[in-house]
Amino acid sequence: MPWAVEWLAVAVVAVVVAIVVRTYVAEMFYIPSGSMEPTLQIGDRIIVDKLSYDLHAIHRGDIVVFRRPPLEPQDFADLVKRVIGLPGETISSHDGSVYIDGKKLAEPWLPPGTYTGALPGDPHPQFNLPGPVVIPKGEYYVMGDNREDSQDSRYFGPIPRSLIVGKMVAIVWPISHDTGIFVALGVVIVVLVAIAVLAAALRRRQARPRVPGRTDRGP
Question: Are 73 and 27 in contact (CB under 8 A)?
Answer without folding.
Answer: no
